[in-house]
Amino acid sequence: MKFQVNRDVFSEAVSFAVKLLPQRTTQPILSGVLLTAEGGSLTLSSFDYEVSSQTEITAEVDEPGTALVSGRLLADIASRLPNAPVQFSTVDGKIAVSCGSARFTLLSMPVEEYPTLPSVGERTGVLPAEDFAAAVSQVAVAASRDDVTPVITGVQLEVADNSISLVATDRYRVAVRSIDWDSGSTSAEGATALVPARTLSEIGKTFGHSGTVAVSIVRTDERELIAFSAEKKTVTSLLIKGNFPPVRRLFPETVENYAVINTAELVEATRRVSLVLEREAALRFSFSIDGLTLEAAGSEQAQASETIDAHLVGEDTVVSLKPSFLLDGLSAVHSEFVRISFTKTENPNKPGPVLITSQSSKEQPGSDDYKYLLQPNLLLR
To answer: Total structural domains in the chain?
Structure first.
């Protein structure tokens, strides 16, 4: 194998290929990146049986061939090469890399032991890349980080006629966002896919400026996976098995009692007042016709309170919310104002979850389909 590539293009391609590889693996072979040079291109692939990445770049190929090399080491080298074309060749079972006056000799791993990458199959639909990236960042934060219950560590993708919804929950909050979806000639309505939140977050960042992203949901006897493709890059991920909880039923159809607040003012006030809180403690939010008062009991040595403007519709309401969870929801509301709606429960002494949505102005609701439901107590029991 012998080829030459542009340094910057190669460095970006290696970075993409290794991004989702695990930091540690029981099988060293899975830490490798597969280089395949043929025709006028170089394909870089990685696969650890759960996630795969593949990208193709232009190369001057003198001798076609395949080589397997340590992914992390190759990424470190590629990011520090001098500004010159990068030349690769295989010599006596090793890989020689030269760039300007820099020379490296890398150990070649056994290609024949490397697993076959999963096939993507027919495209299920296409979605706008920027909307997809924004939706992932809004929703994934609500996914659980507790591996004890794997089914809620993922983001559920639910395909409707002309839209796709992303849903996540950790039982304390639920986040939902719908975006446009084009299924073309295929009938994908009703299809679902439960994708690991960490993987989906990286995919959202990677494909955020790609124009459109093609999605393939593959279900065979051997495996269930999802593939995302754009600009000669493809990422596949195994789906999480299990039934995602029916959290959509928790969202009210209408709410008569709500407050509209400037998002930035509420974020800053929450951060200030929560400074005196002990870990995991909640803030007290009192909504009235006079505005919103935030109170933190904190320790015996420190207390804090602050009042900010709020436009209240309906009756006075007091709720206790965990500040970090509230800030996650406020950060995902990409609008100047935010609407906080107060739901009811059968117990008049116990407030229901609060519903956070975007608000374009004090009077006009936001244009996106983002919803964030937050309750200091468990939403699902």
So the answer is: 3
What is the C-alpha to C-alpha distance for residues 85 and 8, in angstroms, rounded to an integer?
Answer: 9
Provide the token pair at 182.
């084009």
HEC string of the chain equals CEEEECHHHHHHHHHHHHCCCCCCCCCHHHHEEEEEEECCEEEEEEECCCEEEEEEEECEEEECEEEEEEHHHHHHHHHCCCCCCEEEEEECCEEEEEECCEEEEEECECHHHCCCCCCCCCCCEEEEHHHHHHHHHHHHHHCCCCCCCHHHCEEEEEECCCEEEEEEECCCEEEEEEEECECCCCCCCCCEEEEEHHHHHHHHHHCCCCCEEEEEEEECCCCEEEEEEECCEEEEEECCCCCCCCHHHHCCCCCCCEEEEEHHHHHHHHHHHHHHCCCCCCEEEEEECCEEEEEECCCCCCCEEEEECCEEECCCEEEEECHHHHHHHHHHCCCCEEEEEECCCCCCCCCCCEEEEEECCCCCECCCCCEEEECCCCCCC
CA distance 131 to 214: 13
- Taking the C-alpha atoms of residue 249 and residue 90, their distance in angstroms, rounded to an integer, is 59
> What CATH number is given to the structural domain containing 7?
3.10.150.10
Evaluate the CA torsion angle 264, 266, 268, 270 in order and state its sign. negative
pLDDT tens column, 173-218:
999 999 999 987 677 778 899 999 999 999 999 999 889 999 999 8
Domain final residue, candidates 215, 248, 281: 248
Q: Is the pTM of this model over 0.70?
A: yes
Q: Is residue 119 part of a domain?
A: no
pLDDT of residue 279: 80
